[in-house]
Amino acid sequence: MQEAARPIASAVAVDVAIVAGVPDEIDLAAARADSAHLFLRRAWYEAAGHSGVRTVIAARPDGAVIAALPTAPTRWPGMRLVPGSYWPFRSFPVDADIADSELAAMLSSSAVRKALGPVWRMGPVYENDPTLIRLLRICAGSGWTPLPRRIAPSFLLDIDRLQADGSWPRGSTLRKNRFHEKHLATHGDLEWRFVSGAGWTSEVFDDLAEIERRSWVADRTDGSDAKFMAPHHRRVWEGAAADPVLAEAMRAAILYIGGAPAAFSFDLDAGSIKYAIANSYDERFAKHSPGKCLYYRNLVEAMERGIAIVDWGAGDSGYKRTIGADEGPGIVDLLFVGNAALARVIAPIWRRSGRKG
Description:
Blueprint: E1 3-4, E2 15-20, H1 25-31, H2 42-47, E3 54-59, E4 65-73, E5 79-81, H3 100-108, H4 110-116, E6 119-126, H5 130-142, E7 145-158, H6 159-165, H7 171-184, E8 190-195, H8 202-213, H9 216-220, H10 231-241, H11 244-249, E9 250-257, E10 260-270, E11 273-281, H12 290-304, E12 309-311, H13 317-323, E13 326-337, H14 340-352
Parallel strand pairs: 5-6, 11-12
Antiparallel strand pairs: 1-2, 2-3, 3-4, 4-5, 6-13, 7-12, 7-13, 8-9, 9-10, 10-11
Helix pairs in contact: 3-5, 7-12
């Protein structure tokens, strides 16, 4: 390690090192982080494909890694950002038991301030992100001014609450799904497949890409929101799946009709939370709601494995509310500015670029 950070408020011994690229220590920090940050591993950042990454590693005197903060350059001179494989998970792992004084000591280190530059960006990220909550508590003591802007609300399906109410899944919904499945079966035998861990193969990624090519995403958009259809999007998830921990967290539910892929739900599980990343279906079968039939089966399977909350992310609140989701934590985007005068100049511009409500 290169430098002992200056103590903040008390005698805190934290060693920091600045490492080029995305080192293995990121996995050590992720292993000690909050379960919601299970996926913030080396492969997660590496799969994002950013060049010029450098990582701040913080450790206690006994060598235990307590934080790993990778950043990459942006097109704005002097600004760096926390990279990531998927919006809005642009956070970094810290030990779940890290003391505020330890994190403050890391960020106030002269070596860290030099590595991060005058401005660094963390986001989009959830406003209840475990790392963000800690950062906001210690910013003043470590010389950084946070500038948040609002992006959008998220939507959460609280399965435990709905089950306690006895209202989910509704019997009427299950009857409608059985009706649709009966008609889908007239096109061929139905197979419901659940993929994770060692089940991630090139053939599975081919099937997901094929469904997207036959979906509304390919037909009525520019395809930028697709996850598997374009090679550069697919490489992100194939890269993540090369890590056994991430491969186990990545989940796909796939419906095959007559042996051909027809619909998928793709998620990321972290502890008791399921993050819904993408859903798609072959438009030839749209009349009988293959996507809806699949994601209800997917949610029931997840519930049986102990998933308590499904995070549907931002946007398109209509169908999410129909499922039973309610508005959850906001998604925010933050700049951390190392100079108070510069922060006052940037703040109004940055905040106006967000969204109201």
